[in-house]
UniProtKB/TrEMBL annotation, chains A, B:
It comes from the Bacteria. Gene3D superfamilies: Tetracycline Repressor, domain 2. Residues 19-79 form the HTH tetR-type domain. InterPro entries: Homeodomain-like_sf, HTH-type_TetR-like_transc_reg, HTH_TetR, Repressor_TetR_C, Tet_transcr_reg_TetR-rel_C_sf. The lineage of its organism: Bacteria, Bacillati, Actinomycetota, Actinomycetes, Kitasatosporales. This is TetR/AcrR family transcriptional regulator C-terminal domain-containing protein. Residues 42-61 bind DNA.
Amino acid sequence: MTAHPDAPRSRRERPAKPALSRSGIVATAVELMRSEGLQRVTMRRLAQELDTGPASLYVYVRNTAELHAAVLDDLLGSVDLTPVTTPGDWQDRLVAVLTSYTDLLFAHPGLAQSALVARPSGERYLDLVEAVLALLAEGGVPGDRASWALDLLLQFATATAAEHAPRAGAASGDGTRAEDWDALAAAVRGATADTRPQLAALGADLLAGPGEARLAWGFRVLLNGVLHTPR
Amino acid sequence: MTAHPDAPRSRRERPAKPALSRSGIVATAVELMRSEGLQRVTMRRLAQELDTGPASLYVYVRNTAELHAAVLDDLLGSVDLTPVTTPGDWQDRLVAVLTSYTDLLFAHPGLAQSALVARPSGERYLDLVEAVLALLAEGGVPGDRASWALDLLLQFATATAAEHAPRAGAASGDGTRAEDWDALAAAVRGATADTRPQLAALGADLLAGPGEARLAWGFRVLLNGVLHTPR
DNA sequence: ACCTGAACACCGTTCAAGT
DNA sequence: ACCTGAACACCGTTCAAGT
């Protein structure tokens, strides 16, 4: 009897098949997202990457939503929170933190979309919340307003990033966003002073302006609004 | 040879099989959404409802995103725009219009989620845009600010509704939202004055308050902010 | 306890072929 | 032009069975 000649060989066919673990799964998911995009971070595709079947992942992750939430929290580790402890105007520093958060989500808009629907509660997210609250407190925003302002600010940032998500099932090329924009632009051009006077009057101005400036203006609007609006 | 005995019978087995048309497809999609929810408004399920195969729908609708956009525009027909031409404070009337829009989306949060990603450009949507711009103009908001304010207001309303969307692939029962909330509440309770002082200080206040009041406050924050923030 | 094969119940979209 | 059957290439999740 020759001793099991296959078992040792098959073990060496792939570089390594490390034991599954939640952190390993999440790390692989992050890698997969960076290389192929969030739309490929599915239970099945991820299992394939980990050399196992999809069912195995359910031991460590409740479902796809939880997986995406874990990926998001991992990513949030690279939000720049240093402005919190830097000298300078509190509003400028708050906008800096929020901009860092938004930039990060812009790179992964699908994740922003998840965050909008599945309320995050990971450690990194809590760090971000703490940072925003600290700056609002420094600015003298009363606690009751700060609680709600926090949501407003993060929701604005998250939604703005989510708007750039590829639509589910869209072809990889994704001219789909440009098509939407063209359709809206055509509709605006189609407005006349008779039918839709406001639209006709504003015209191109309605669609103009770089996203960056709109984002910054939005943050300022929210901060000014919060300072002028008691609960 | 007996003459095709099956053909006439099969024609009468179902009440009627009307010819396909874009408006018929959209109308059926709206019905289907009201009876089974947006998650069931898929090309395949809709085709089944129309007694045909999914491929047939692609003659009238480019893809699923366009189908959902058409359903949304149909729904937008019931936004109450009468406050535009009513006497009274312009801000109150604007908030009334926006609240009507938001209430509508709250009933179909999945649609709000689509609207966030696929910019609407339907007739009903343009009517809403025109209404909001008319009220901003009445309030003396300069055109350049009004253009951006429009986006801010509609995005806030849409995102707030989208937050209540059921997560993709969640079980029908959907205790999933409550679970998220519990997780966040637990995380907030876990904050101490040492680790996350701001979070600990605000505590329950952070999660308190009815959605309705938060929404109304949010609209006021945006309006006050817009009035105080030049571009 | 952890892991898995296999199944269940679905998806969107395309395309060659028919009428 | 309009419509379709069939296929391609996927999904999430569960469950009984194995180790």
